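To: structure desk
From: M.T.
Subject: fold request, one chain
Message: Could you run this one when you get a chance? Sequence is below, nothing fancy, just the single chain.
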Amino acid sequence: MNTTKSSAPTGLRMSSDITGSAVKNLQSENIGSIEDLVLDAESGRVRFAILGIGGFLGLGETHVAVPWSAFQRNQDVDADSVPYLLDSTREQLEKAPRFDRDKLGALYSRETSEPIFLHYRVVYFE
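Reply: Done. Structure tokens follow.
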């Protein structure tokens, strides 16, 4: 894993700077970490972040797809802070639809992805 952080302007990030990032909720509780990003190959937009939740040291961890638009960037970022915030409790994450890498293509359809957007109370976009 690349441990060198990019020094790009605030709006630009390398995916290697994002994956592995811890995520906190608005109550400052650690709720997971960003394991991967799902890009829409046609638009080039990040559509979902795959969030690893629960478990201990990777054992028993489950994964959920969270719409990228559901995250807030922590504007008060320093070397020791968590840059990604999600307005979700642990209980809400436990009830979230699970992500199955083998069924990645299903996230492309509105039928499958819109309920995920609704779960996180963000506007669906194609």
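Reply (cont.): The beta strands are 22-25, 30-39, 46-53, 62-67, 71-73, 84-86. Let me know if you need anything else for the meeting.
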